Amino acid sequence: MSRSDDDKPSNEQPINGHPRPGMSRRQVLYGTAAAGAVTLLPLQPARAAAAGTKSAGKKTVVVLGGGMSGLAAAHELIERGFNVTVFERKALGGKARSIPVPGTGKQGRRDLQGEHGFRFFPGFYRNVPDTMRRIPVPGNANGVHDNMIDLTSTRISRNAGRSDIIVPELTRPGGTGLDLDVLKETLTGLTEQVAAIPASELSLFVNRFIVYLTSSDERRLGQWERLPWWDYVKAEGKSKDYRAIVARFLTRGLVAVKEEVASTRTVGAMGQAFLLSGLGLGADGGLARMLNAPTNEAWIDPWVTYLRSRGVRFEVGQTVEALDVASGRIRSAHLIDAQGKRRTAEADWFVCAMPVERARALLSPAILALDPSLAGMNDLHTEWMNGLQFFLRKSPHGIDQEVNFMDSPWQLTAVLQSRLWNRDFPRDYGDGQVTDCLSLDISDWDTPGIVTGRPAKECSPAEVAKECWAQMKDHLEDTGRSVLPDGLLHSWFLDPAIAWNAATRRNTNDEPLMVNTVGSWAKRPRSRTRIPNLFMAGDYVQTNMDLATMEGANESGRAAANALLDAADSPAKPADLWKLYQPPELDGLKKLDAQRFRTGLPNLFDT
Description:
By secondary structure, the chain is of the alpha+beta class. The strands form 7 sheets. A 7-stranded mixed β-sheet has the order 8-7-17-18-19-16-20. A 5-stranded parallel β-sheet has the order 10-2-1-14-24, with helices on one face. Residues 1-55 and 169-178 have low confidence and may be disordered.
């Protein structure tokens, strides 16, 4: 459901793309009924568009990149009558895809499924769930959306003999009642956590959180965007546990960025979103959800099938080398395939949906002359956050659906897939000996490990696996119990984006992650560039989400589609865009804070 700009805003309604200068939202949405009819018509061959012809006659779109943002843009545009071709370098789905382990499927079984990192859908995601509802799946009333399930059990694991915290599930696995051992461990862990951090530091963190909640948008962008999270929470000189939990885990463990350079605006916004969605405010579902099958099976494959059925053409194995400029517009994209064969793709409109490290390689002098602001992309920073899967002969005891290894040097997080997937491992995957998969995200590749004494970037794949196994045991078996006996391990699989160079004894990463450092917002591009037919989509583009996530990428794809619709004078209804929920109860305090910020005063609670 859409609204006009003069309607009263609601946190539960989508916020649509910006109108053309001088036009009201109501004018932009005029003709929605006609747009509905357009999307039902058969796709017509594109007309050749000469320079100077009316924009509305231009219908061909080239999307460069088939990850989350590219697929989202293609989805919105194909449903609005455009002819869309997607060119992708590696595999559709980007970082969200499944990665089959070659040659592991035996006797008719499918290959074991690796992942760039397990899929995690916080409740405050709104754009991605909307897309998923619009991807049909036989037997699912709500399409792919029905393949998400609520995360009901997570373990916050500590090492050095400290008790873990298991939340929120305290029942026995069979649902037969309260598990007293789990309850005892959780209460003990909570008591230890509270006792480990001095009361003054707990009070400090509560104060910092309240300051952020009541900060105006002006202060968040004008002050907190420029302040590192480490400084904001005043971590210097504080206790080891305060620094480990409040400073390090909330940055490296959750968003893969170093606390000394992480933007307070971004980290604070994510903390607020998790808190509010946990209270059921502005959420599409529970606090966190995951998929009930490998990502490709549960989501990407049905999505691609649907888009193909609507007319999207996919060209995989095509790397973009350059964009050709003529008469102030993008005339064509130059591509090369794995065999070295080159080709040129022409279109009326171009959506650049490539990762930032590849998109900025296209910033030729001719392009920067047309839009100098794009040069800010060269200053954006990337970090590593990649997946590792341990395939197990038996399902381990004492591991919940999701585990945060809080004190691990490499900031490991893991999910036990048997607790989530509705699949029979021995029947469906591998050689019949694998019964489970422990899927990890490695978020810190720069801190020395506990076995090799080297960071993950300087460890061979075998050493990475050995180190991760040891760091998990260091947390799960620090009280003497056996959770991960070595005989449990069948095999492992490291994200193939990580490539080891034995000569230099260093890894390279073909798929890094853009992270929000202080001051990076101003350097990130908007969806609409100053080049009339070029639009940007990707997790690094300015979005309401403001974080490199599936949600941010999806939102950017929608925003790029809306900007293109606007430039093309399309009568089609813009794609819906959701903002993070903001409690209206805090509006008064935020208004006061905006006044204080403009006069140079601190936040009212910033004492």
